Amino acid sequence: MTIASDNQDRKQDVKPDRNQGDREGDSQDLVIARPEGLYCAAGDFYIDPWRPVERAVITHAHSDHARFGHRHYLASRPGANVLLSRLPGIALQTLAYGERLAIGGTVVSLHPAGHVLGSAQVRIEHAGRVWVASGDYKLDPDPTCDAFEPVRCETFITESTFGLPIYRWDPPQNVFDGIDSWWRHNAAEGRASVLFCYSFGKAQRVLASVDAGIGPIFCHGAVEPLNRAYRDAGVPLPPVRLVSEIERKDKAMFRQALIVAPPSAQGSAWLKRFGDYSDAFASGWMRLRGARRRRGVDRGFVLSDHADWPSLQSAIQATEAGRVIVTHGSVEPMVRWLREQGLEAGAFETQYGDDTVEADAAVADQTASAQDSDVASHAPAEQADERIDRIDRIDQPETRDESIPGANTS
Q: Is residue 196 part of a domain?
């Protein structure tokens, strides 16, 4: 992996401190944890804040990282369509990957994270120091988004969703070959194949990677707006029809089809329209047999848009950071491993990825009627999908509608 940017002044002899990253107060820290979110005082902005703020830099459009209520938003240009589809009407300023923007006393740039379309790491430079906040990321290849780009820094703020040694992914192509084989077998038997996966990111990755020659492809109404945003961003996807376009009595249309649906559709009346079907679930959490059993599906495909244990280690090492702060996921095991490597490590308490599988069931009754009608916008269902996916788990400035106050391109 190539290094995106260098920091000549990076500290070489940072000594471990078990408390750093756990407190709000070190005046030398470029980023601290506040009740609103992760805050950069030198630039007076927040990264993926969970409470309303004046200036928010957004790593990607999943709802635990991108929320309504901020006055000004800054995000990557490739992810603008998706972000605006989920947060319509926001004051959004965008940057190309690698483009530098002066905000207050800092210089900020965004670099690919490989998580979903538009996902970005936030590089912050101030007074000769460089910090990078990763957001969510993966290192596996994905035809629907830019690949993770390691960025050299002195302090790296990382996720750890799958930060345990048990989580090791097979090559993605092996997983898609398995999905194709399952779909092909069902099609030969005249049976529909219903694949549950998160509607933003995972669904598009599946659509771009399966063999569309096996049969027709349909999607749930919650998936289509994201497909449209991906296509508008130039991501090629195969032809996909909405399930709602087919008469309910015409079940024969689905006998050889792949149907991509959000996890919240599982167990709903919406599934009755397919007649005989086999179902499967695509998630990193399918690595756990208990998760497969609880989901009650015919097949579980281990496919994640987050880094597995070896990839987390590789990504952290590639930054050459002497200090690492963990935000969410398996925080304690990751911090322990980092300290065993001689790194200074700590944690930020955040509100990223902190829901549980059971949260999906809590909104099932609220979303069932909407799922059955298959309308194109399902906010409660999308929120439930995000919970499931988390737990069972160059400078070319563009014309902007409204800029972040105090920001200047450089």
A: yes
> Do 45 and 99 fall within a single domain?
yes
E strand residue ranges, 27-90? 32-34, 37-40, 45-47, 55-57, 72-76
Residue with tokens 């030198």: 42
The pair of structure tokens assigned to 246 is 């087919």
- Residue 11's contacts (CB-CB under 8 Å, 6 or more residues apart) are 154, 322
Same domain, 81 and 57: yes
Domain co-membership, 125 together with 60: yes
Q: What is the mean pLDDT of the segment spanning 285-307? A: 92
Q: Specify whether the CB–CB gap between 263 and 385 falls below 8 A.
A: yes
Q: Does 380 score more than 50 pLDDT? A: no
Give the chain's end-to-end CA distance (angstroms, integer).
26
> Domain total for the chain?
2
What's the pLDDT tens digit per position in 152-198? Answer: 999 999 999 999 999 999 999 999 999 999 999 999 999 999 999 99
Question: Which residues, including other chains, have CB under 8 Å from residue 66's CB and lie 6 or more apart?
Answer: 48, 58, 60, 75, 83, 86, 87
DSSP 8-state symbol, 277: E
**Rounded Cα–Cα distance for residues 212 and 97 (Å):** 31
Strand segments, DSSP code E, in 23-95 are 32-34, 37-40, 45-47, 55-57, 72-76, 92-95
Q: Are residues 347 and 234 part of one domain?
A: no
Whether residue 183 contacts residue 210, with contact meaning beta carbons closer than 8 Å, is answered with: yes
Strand partners, 39: 32, 46
Distance CA(287)–CA(142), nearest Å, equals: 20
